[in-house]
Every structure is written in structure tokens, then in C-alpha cells.
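Dear V.,

Thank you for sending over the compound details. I've combined the ligand you provided, flavin mononucleotide, with the protein sequence from our construct and run the structure prediction for the complex. I'm sharing the raw inputs here so there's no ambiguity about protonation or stereochemistry in the SMILES, which I know was a concern on your side last time.
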Amino acid sequence: MSLFRLDASIMPATSSSRSLADLVEAEWRASHPDSAVTRRDLAADPVPSTAWADAVTSGFVEEGQRTAGQSEALALARGFADELIDADALLFAVPLYNYGVSQHFKTWFDLAYTDPRIDPTGTALRGKPATLVTVLGGNYAAGTPKDGWDHSTGWLRRVLEDVWGLDLRVVQRPFTLVGVNPALDAFTDTARELKEAAEASARAYGRELAARRASQGV
Ligand SMILES: Cc1cc2nc3c(=O)[nH]c(=O)nc-3n(C[C@H](O)[C@H](O)[C@H](O)COP(=O)(O)O)c2cc1C
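Below is the predicted structure of the protein with flavin mononucleotide bound, written out as C-alpha cells.
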């Protein structure tokens, strides 16, 4: 058994998404103590912003005519896809930034998605067990003033669950900026409850991730 873990927080020292993903990983490791965990840290090792266009345009030229950038981008995409395909379980930790998806994650996803094994016609990831941990500084729940402003969680679900076909569970922790931004002090109790609920979900999904097996051909 093997786990692939991806982190996208740009502030790893204080990261809430990392802490939650650590809980998921700890449960997975408890069940598979001798198994490998492959990690990719998109903040420490960002994907070059030119790589995606290079990989896409490489498809329009003969192999011998490709630029060095195009060949490097293809190799990078292949490596990303290998990491996903080779793992038995996947764990993604992705914060909300500027009301949208992390640019680090988007750049990584776009490049990995150029690999034909995991494009919409590919089946390599279908049914693979996965957990997404996502954190939001504010709260975008139904009825809140910013309901509808979180343009990250929905997109992450669409691409991981519907496009790649992963057997996905999602842990979401809103209000991580309570205790950091004094303007949110009134929400201290709510934020604590949301944190505890997210931690309980992370542990439960970690145990589940360890127990789940890939379902075939969804
Ligand atoms: C540059 C930047 C932009 C952010 N934009 C938003 C935002 O649009 N909405 C929000 O709710 N939180 C926003 N946040 C807060 C983060 O979502 C929050 O701090 C989260 O906990 C970060 O993930 P991490 O704790 O794993 O590092 C932003 C944080 C940073 C650093």
C-alpha cells in the first residue's frame, strides 16, 4: 500500500490544512506502518507557470521538433501522473486563496491533466480512494454574507471527483482566520466547533482511506 500526499499551503509553519492532513495521514500510517508515503509540496517546489502551455503545445509538433521546455514539461507531467497512478490512496491539502483555487494547485492539476492516462478518456484514476482537506479563512456557508464566494471547494470537487473519477471524501474547515483577524472575534465559539468537527472528520476519513480499496471501472 502507498499514499500520495500533496500540500498547497504557502505558509507551512502555521498551516491549518497541513494539520488536518497530518491527522488523515497519521490514521493511514497507523493502518499501514510499513508503507510508503510520497509527498509533493507545491509551495516549496512550485510548478513552473510555463510548463502547462509547453506540455499542451508539444502535442502539435513532432517529437524531434520539440523545444527543451516542451520536453521538460512533458516529463514533469508524466512524473505527476506516475505519482497519482502508482499510489493506492491520495490525500490533497488545499487552502482557499482570493476566493478561488490555489494557483499552485491549479498549475499542478493542469499539467498533470495533460497526461493522456488521466485525461477524461483515461481510466487510470477511476475509483481510487482519495481525501481532500480544504480550509477557508472565512465562512461561506448558506445564509452567510459571502455565501457563493468560495470558488475553490466546488471546483476541487468537480475535477477530483467528476473529472478524474476519484472516490473522494472532503474535509472542510471554515473560519481558520478566527483568532488571527480580530474582526472575527465574535465567531470564536463557532470557529472552535467547526475546527473540532473538521478534526473528527479528518480522523474518520483517514481511517476510512486506509481501509478503502480502489473500486474498479466507475
Ligand atoms: C494571500 C491569501 C489570500 C487569502 N484569501 C482568502 C479568501 O479569499 N477567502 C478566505 O476565506 N480566506 C482567504 N485566505 C485565508 C486562508 O484561506 C486561510 O488562512 C487558510 O487557513 C490558509 O491555509 P493554511 O492554514 O493551510 O495555510 C487567504 C490567505 C492568504 C495568505
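A first observation: The longest strand covers residues 89-97.

Warm regards,
I. M.
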